[in-house]
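Exercise 7. Given the encoded structure of a 254-residue chain, write a plausible sequence.
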């Protein structure tokens, strides 16, 4: 299953790379929420591959929703995470593929085609980047930490714009980034490039593979208050573990 997920992420990533920079057909799902023909092509390819190999498995994909099968296995896929970046030619986007078994994610693979980086994990087996083991960072304090976050598509209308958190972390961290691909952000926590990441309003396909990759790289993933993470609840705090309480305290400040 892990090898299948890795190959699938790589092959779908090739579709993203091949269409990069071409004139794209872009539609608006919301005021600032885009979908390109490449999101749809990539998801179609992924669904075909899963259906051929595991016809009884269920699939949850961002563009096509939940398939009809009832199964203990559910593939959770984001065919293009970072669509706004992609549509602007900003090279920070990926394909994210996870496999859930009876509600627990057991396999995750995320492929960044512009850097040819494949992040992957199987529950209990550690995490890898291009087949080499990866570990979260050992940065122990917020003042030395490079953090990352994102802003949801409902940022214009939501009362929770994440700016309060962003502003507080600017005051206490070494620096804060906003890169536009939650799945890549999580991989970078796993690889020790970021020390912590938080975001609101994400969906299961943004977090399922990345959250497993972080925990398998020795990091910690919870809701903001430190309670157990749930892919279907849109709130995530992912850190190297050492910063977890400090970040949770900042997020919970009134
Ligand atoms: C988005 C990205 C972004 C995050 C958004 C997501 P998409 O996914 O992960 O970083 O801030 O909330 O929806 O739409 O590019 O697949
Ligand atoms: Ca996404
Ligand atoms: Ca997407």
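Solution.
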């Amino acid at each position: 299953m892990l090898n299948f997920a890795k190959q699938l992420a790589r092959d779908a990533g090739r579709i993203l790379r091949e269409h990069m920079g071409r004139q794209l057909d872009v539609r608006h799902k919301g005021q600032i929420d885009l979908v390109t023909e490449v999101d749809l092509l990539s998801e179609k390819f992924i669904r075909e591959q899963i259906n051929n190999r595991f016809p009884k498995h269920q699939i949850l994909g961002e563009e096509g929703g939940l398939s009809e099968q009832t199964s203990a296995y559910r593939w959770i896929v984001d065919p293009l995470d970072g669509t706004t970046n992609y549509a602007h030619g900003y090279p920070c986007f990926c394909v994210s593929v996870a496999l859930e078994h009876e509600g627990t994610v057991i396999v995750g693979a995320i492929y960044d085609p512009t850097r040819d980086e494949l992040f992957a994990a199987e529950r209990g087996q550690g995490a890898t980047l291009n087949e080499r083991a990866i570990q979260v960072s050992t940065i122990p304090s917020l003042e030395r930490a490079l953090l990352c976050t994102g802003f949801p598509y409902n940022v214009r209308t939501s009362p929770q714009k994440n700016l309060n958190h962003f502003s507080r972390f600017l005051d206490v961290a070494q620096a804060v980034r906003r890169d536009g691909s939650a799945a890549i952000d999580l991989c970078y926590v796993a690889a020790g490039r970021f020390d912590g990441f938080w975001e609101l309003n994400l969906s299961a396909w943004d977090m399922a593979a990345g959250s497993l990759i972080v925990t398998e790289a020795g990091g910690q993933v919870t809701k903001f208050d430190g309670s157990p993470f749930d892919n279907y609840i849109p709130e995530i705090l992912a850190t190297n573990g050492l910063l977890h309480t400090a970040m949770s305290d900042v997020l919970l400040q009134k």
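Remark. The helical segments are 2-19, 37-53, 83-88, 163-172, 182-190, 204-216, 244-252. Students should compare their own answers with the one above.
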